[in-house]
Structures are given as C-alpha cells and as structure tokens.
C-alpha cells in the first residue's frame, strides 16, 4: 500500500509550553516540563515512512517547523483549546508555502468542537474526532474523505460530519510507539520534575471508568471504559523499550488510571519485575495495600495521585469517587511500602471558598506526599466542568484558559472568591507545603544522594521563584 508523505506535528507555541500533544493539563507550569506526544506517536507508528515532530521540547521555532513541514504532503497537527489560534496561523502559513498540502487537526478540542475548529480557517482541510489512530492511517493511505469514519471536513463549501469511528478495543493490535520515539524524538529533552531523568512515558491503554467532571481525556477522546493491552504485550513492549533506551532511568505509564483494573496492574507488575526496570504510573487514591505491595515489589517507584481537594463536598461535586479517609489510608500504605507520591491538587473547583482552600492546604500537609503540584481548575470544552461553568456563569469575563504566555491562570470565579484570590492561593499553597522542615529535609536528602537531582532541583528552584516573580510583576 502506498502512503502519502505524512508528518505528525506538535506545533511550537509559547516558550516552554507543555500543553499540546501529550499533556492532560494544557498550560505552562511553574517548572519547565514536557510529556511525550503519545497521542501522535501512535498513529505515526501506523503510517509507514511518516515522521513525528515535537516542536516544544526540541525548541523548534515556527520557521524551522515550516521548513520541515513543507517537505510533506499531509500534516496532522495536534491542537488544543489554548493554542488553537496560533496553530491555525501556522496552518495558514504552511498553506501559503505549499498550497496543495493537506492539513488535518487532531486533539481534544477538534474532537468536541469539529465545526468550530474547521471554521477557524480554510487552511484546515479536515479534523479528526475522538480516537484518530486509524483515521490518520486511512487518510494517509489515500482513502477518500467521504469514506473515512470519525472526521469532519468541507465539501462544496459545507461542513460535513462523517459517522463516529468506533473506539479501539484490541490494543494488542496497535504497534509500539517506542520505535517512533527512537526514530524521531530525543528522550533527553523530556523532563518532569518528579520523575527520574531521562524518563519515557506512554500509554498501555486509554479510558478511565471514573467520572471526574474536570478531566480532559476520558470526556473528550478516550471514554470511560479502560481499554488496554494485555499484560504480556505490555511486558514485551517494555523489554523492547529497555533495549532501545538503555539510558532510561524511569518508565511512566500515562494511562488515565493504570490501576483502574487491579488484577491487570498486578499481573503487569509481576512481568515487569523480571525485567528489573524502575517504573511509575498514575493511580487513584483507592488502590489496596495488596496491589500496592505487588507493584512496589516489582519495580514501582512513584505514583502520580490526583487528590484534587481536601474538602469532601468538593470531591463529591466533581465526582472524584474517593473519600478523604480512603485517600489518607492509601497514602499511609504507600509510605509504609516506600512508594513515593507526587500528589496533585486543584484550586478553584466548584464549591471552593476561602475555607475549603485552607482545608485543602491543611489536608495536603497532613497526608504529606513527597511532592505536589497545584493546578487551577481548567474547564476545557467537552468537560462537564465546562458545561457547568457556562450554565452558572463561573467564567471570569476577562480571561481565557491560559495567560498570554501560555501559563496557567484562574478561569473561574465564584461568589465570595475572585479569580485573583484563587490565583494567589496557588503560591500560598506551595509555600505552606514546601516551607516546612519535613519537605525541605526530603529534598536535601534527595539532592545529597544524587548529583543529577541536585542540579535539576536547583534549576527548578530558580524557575519556580522566577515564575511567581513574573506573576507579581504582571498582576
Ligand atoms: S480518575 Fe483521573 S484520569 Fe480518571 S477521570 Fe478522574 S482525574 Fe481523570
């Protein structure tokens, strides 16, 4: 079969912006970090001869990307709500350079707002909705657009929506993304503060059975059924990855909730144990001691855990499905087993007040994960939180989902709690948590044990303070 010369592109945007093809939180953070463009790597693995360009971590600017892209006939560009305007301008510049190039937009924003995304510019020939792996392959193989499920496109001046594409259920059929990573990415350019460097992240499955109202991927692309590779396929892929990237110090499973089906997580852990690799994953704060122990005994180092709030009513409102008591117990178990936790919290969720923010800060200090990150509620189109915000008038009129340089910003506000106050609480939260003897001692110990960590932490410390200084200068 002949395939078009195809480029999968995570476009450049604001400097250090990690919101595009891999990140579930689409904003620039206090500390420079980059996730892998897994969503693009998967179709790239299905299209022979294609290339994946991840502009932000490779520091590729607009002109460099235009030079590369004009050597292709078909471009799939991963867009996001905050970057749509810039991505559209890039598509227009590319069409000016090479009028016969075909450009399709993919990603959560295109999935939930296909007509609006197409309407943004005539330079966009089509958008792919929901899971787009096989959609990309069919288009690259020359299938006429009217025969391709899961796309919206223009025909005779009108926007046409083809039928939905069925979600993928047999994940073992999908080729590994590791060969694409090896061919097209520089893994040393990817860093996440709490993961060892260099790290590699990818998905072994998609979808999450939980119903959190703010969460992007399950509500827009992946759905609420966890569809995943078999444990044997995961083990084969990891063995391959360890051979391809011997320098990797940690593998991260970025599945929405890797632990959603505990027997599978345990089975995979046992197979990974034989490979002797260090790994980490996303987890909800409700994993049993038995499962945690099996995972720890087989190379698990760290869990990324969404606690979100220290107020039960807020957790119930956002449908987190985890009780504070459960999360306390889970955290204690992790500590007992020596599993490191990076906890994530969100400020500005529905029901937030000055008092609930205080409760959340105190809760974080009480359970005391190894490290944490504080995000601002981000109501992306397609999520229940977005719908609620529109219905209840919670959107602050002046702001969008990110600030003018792509940094996270408070988009929502409530009676008695302004967006400025919510934003200011982020810094307060970080300071209240980190400026205590225990976290400081932990960090110092970690830095003494590993010189590479010391260098990174010092750099991150500078970035962290610069971020807040810049913010103060702006506000
Ligand atoms: S458990 Fe995590 S991945 Fe699943 S819906 Fe909630 S926030 Fe999203």
Commentary on this structure:
By secondary structure, this protein is of the alpha/beta class. Helices cover 41% and strands 15% of the residues. It is built from 18 helices and 15 strands. It has helices spanning 38-46, 62-69, 84-97, 108-112, 114-119, 133-140, 178-184, 216-222, 231-244, 262-275, 289-297, 312-317, 324-337, 354-367, 384-392, 419-434, 437-449, 451-474, and strands at residues 6-10, 51-54, 74-78, 102-106, 126-128, 151-155, 158-161, 199-202, 205-206, 227-228, 250-253, 279-283, 300-308, 340-347, 371-376. Strands 2-1-3-4-5-6-7 form a seven-stranded mixed sheet, sandwiched between helices. Strands 8-11-12-13-14-15 form a six-stranded parallel sheet. Strands 9-10 form a two-stranded antiparallel sheet. Strand 11 (250-253), helix 10 and strand 12 form a beta-alpha-beta unit. Helix 1 packs across helix 6, helix 11 runs parallel beside helix 13 (324-337) and helix 17 (437-449) packs across helix 18. It is globular, with a radius of gyration of 22 Å. 48% of the residues are buried. The mean pLDDT is 92. Bound molecules: iron/sulfur cluster. Iron/sulfur cluster is lined by residues 208, 210, 212, 215, 218, 256-257, 284, 306.
In short:
With about 475 residues, the protein is α/β, with parallel strands linked by helices. The chain has helices at about 40-45, 60-70, 85-95, 110, 115-120, 135-140, 180-185, 215-220, 230-245, 260-275, 290-295, 310-315, 325-335, 355-365, 385-390, 420-435, 435-450, 450-475, and strands at about 5-10, 50-55, 75-80, 100-105, 125-130, 150-155, 160, 200, 205, 225-230, 250-255, 280-285, 300-310, 340-345, 370-375.
């Amino acid at each position: 079969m002949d395939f078009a010369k195809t480029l999968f592109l995570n476009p450049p945007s604001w400097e250090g912006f990690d919101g595009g093809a891999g990140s579930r939180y689409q904003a620039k953070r206090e500390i420079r970090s980059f996730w892998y463009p897994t969503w693009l790597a998967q179709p790239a693995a299905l299209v022979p001869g294609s290339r994946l360009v991840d502009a932000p971590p490779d520091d590729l600017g607009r002109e460099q990307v235009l030079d590369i892209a004009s050597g292709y006939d078909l471009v799939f560009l991963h867009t996001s709500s905050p970057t749509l305007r810039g991505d559209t301008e890039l598509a227009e510049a590319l069409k000016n350079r090479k009028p016969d190039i075909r450009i399709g937009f993919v990603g959560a924003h295109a999935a939930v707002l296909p007509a609006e995304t197409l309407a943004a510019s005539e330079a966009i020939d089509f958008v792919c909705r929901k899971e787009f792996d096989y959609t990309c392959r069919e288009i690259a193989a020359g299938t006429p657009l009217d025969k391709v499920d899961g796309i919206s496109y223009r025909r005779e001046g009108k926007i046409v929506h083809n039928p939905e594409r069925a979600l993928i259920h047999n994940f073992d059929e999908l080729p590994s993304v590791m060969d694409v990573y090896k061919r097209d990415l520089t893994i040393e350019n990817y860093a996440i503060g709490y993961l060892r460097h260099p790290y590699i992240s990818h998905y072994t499955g998609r979808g999450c059975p939980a119903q959190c109202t703010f969460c992007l991927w399950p509500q827009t692309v992946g759905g609420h059924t966890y569809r995943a590779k078999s444990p044997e396929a995961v083990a084969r892929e990891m063995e391959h990855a360890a051979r391809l990237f011997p320098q990797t110090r940690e593998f991260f499973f970025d599945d929405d909730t890797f632990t959603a089906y505990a027997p599978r997580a345990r089975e995979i852990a046992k197979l990974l144990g034989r490979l002797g690799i260090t790994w980490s994953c996303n987890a909800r704060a409700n994993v049993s001691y038995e499962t945690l122990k099996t995972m720890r005994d087989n190379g698990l180092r760290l869990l990324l855990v969404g606690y979100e709030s220290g107020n039960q009513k807020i957790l119930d409102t956002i449908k987190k499905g985890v009780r504070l008591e459960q999360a306390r117990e889970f955290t204690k178990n992790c500590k007992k087993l020596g599993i490191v936790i990076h906890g994530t919290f969100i400020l500005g969720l529905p029901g937030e007040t000055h008092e609930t923010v205080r409760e959340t800060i105190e809760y974080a200090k009480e359970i005391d994960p190894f490290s944490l990150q504080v995000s601002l509620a981000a109501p992306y189109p397609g999520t229940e939180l977005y719908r609620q915000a529109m219905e209840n008038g919670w959107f602050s009129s002046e702001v969008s989902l990110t600030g003018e340089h792509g940094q996270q910003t408070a988009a929502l506000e409530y009676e008695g709690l302004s967006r400025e106050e919510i934003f200011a609480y982020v810094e307060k939260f970080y300071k209240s948590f980190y400026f205590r003897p225990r976290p400081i001692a932990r960090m110092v110990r970690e830095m003494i044990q590993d010189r590479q960590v010391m260098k990174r932490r010092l750099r991150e410390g500078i970035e962290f303070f610069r971020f807040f200084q810049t913010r103060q200068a702006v506000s």
